Amino acid sequence: MITDFAKTMQSVSALPNLAGNPFLEPTFRAYYPVPVNIDSLTLKGDHVFSEKDNISGRFTRSPRTREVTGGLYGFPPPGLTNAGGTGRSISHVYSSFARWNHIFSPTLLNEFQASNHRSTQLSGTLADDTDWPAKLGLPNPFSGKGWPTICVSEYQLFYWGCWDADNRHDQNLTAFQLENNVTWIKGKHSIKFGFKGRQEYNNVRELQQTHGSHSFYGDWTALYDPEGDYATYLTGSGFGGMLLGLPTYLSNQYNRGFFYFQQKETGLYFHDSFKVSPRLTLELGVRWDRWSPYKEKYDRLVNLDLNDYIGKMEVITPHSTRMEDIPGIPPAVLGSWAARGLTWKTADEVGFPGALVPEDNNNFGPRLGVAFRLNEKWVLRGGYGEYFWTMPLSQILQSARTNPPLNLRFENSLSDQNGTYWNYALLNAPGPNDHVGTAEVNIAGIRPLPSSAQGMMVWDVHNWSDNRAQEWNFTIEREIMKE
After folding, report:
1. CA quadruple 129, 130, 131, 137: dihedral positive or negative?
2. In principle, which of 68, 134, 388, 474 could form an S-S bond with 382, CB 3.0–4.6 Å?
3. How many C-alpha atoms does 283 have within 13 Å on its Cβ side?
4. DSSP category for residue 293
């Protein structure tokens, strides 16, 4: 009896024909994550030029590689190290800074720092670099690599399961930053002010089954019930269909590859620590932060106007970039969405913010504090601050990669070829293009899209602002014993 179908796949070396392969493994093996190649390096240095000038710097390199040889969404077939059921993560972090401290006078100091950060991270499976669709004879119109998702249903055993694998993710995050901080002591005032400038280049890719997601149901091997126009209850074997090389459903997801996100951050601050008396100190300051709207290098972002969407299905592209001019989108993708009723305009055409979201330049955050000594044993303290931050890049990516028309799954539902859901395979013998190796997924023509609603993540430009948090505190301190 098959007790755990997804974990007992044995051999796929002859899978282009699928027939005659013993997929079942009688025993189970234990797999463990194996961390390797942890080799960090940090170099530091400093030099004093004079009583007024000194510099310091640091460079850090930190790689880490982790492999999981099995037990992730199943197990690989025996003898294979580059198939589904595996996992891997390869990370490299590089960071460096150089700092220059200069003393103008005993009461005026300046600190300048230049820094950068670079981190690359790849996560996925040990199959990511193997052309498994070609080995398995499955369609691969986008030339993706990796282990495709293959699902099977067993009516006789009431089983549904998949040989699955994690999608590949790539992140290359780069940032350059300049900071300058001045400290000036004047009488009872200790004044600090400065700025920060940061430029980010974040290249992110998340492949969504571009190499395929396929299903083998029991329709090719089930008995036909003419009265119900459906499969006879408890007949049909998806596993049997797999051995015969007869899929029910084939699909490949269109992916845009890397998103190249860019953003600038600017910050200015002023703070005065004012010692009003030996018992009272006031902290008075303000900080201004600004983040430019995220820009994608090729303008592969869309939005929707929530004040003008009733009765139509229209998305907006950045600035004057026409949808047809965005590189890398197959004509069939745009044609299929247009046939569904989707239209698009540029931001300039409809008077929309060019970056698809407005700039928020009002992030002024106060910094207020007070400390008052009641006597030698009691002190009162209080403070208030307001803080801002931009929309996380992960939220931008999660919405941008699925918004139409930047997302489309191309399908070949072999069981629906006669126009009626499911019953083609019940009524017909397999044709020459119904087998693995000859069955294809067409990405050239217009694909009919369902009439159901399409989900979309919308950025509301009419009520847009950066994230904000307010914090305040009040404390009473008492000295329990001397010192």
Report:
1. negative
2. 474
3. 13
4. P
Kindly state the tokens that stand for 422: 């499911």
Residue 8 confidence class, pLDDT cut points 50, 70, 90: very low
Residue-level pLDDT at 28: 34
User: What is the H or E stretch that residue 408 is in?
Assistant: strand 408-413
Report how far residue 275's alpha carbon sits from residue 152's, in angstroms, rounded to the nearest whole number.
74
CB 401 within 8 A of CB 206: yes
Query: 189-206 and 230-231: which strand pairing?
Result: unpaired
The neighbour count for residue 121, using CB atoms within 10 Å, is: 16
Q: What is the pLDDT of residue 33?
A: 53
233 pLDDT tier (thresholds 50, 70, 90): confident
Tokens of 136: 């398995």
| CB of 242 closer than 8 Å to CB of 15 | no
Instruction: Return the closest-CA partner of residue 63 out of 117, 116, 115, 120.
Output: 120
39: closest CA among 98, 91, 115, 97?
91
pLDDT in tens, 127-141: 999 999 999 999 999
First to last CA, the chain: 75
- How much of the chain is helix, strand and coil, in % rounded to 5? 10, 45, 45
Q: What is the pTM of this model?
A: 0.80
Concatenate the DSSP letters of all residues of 413-434 into one string.
EGGGTTSSTTTHHHHS---TTS
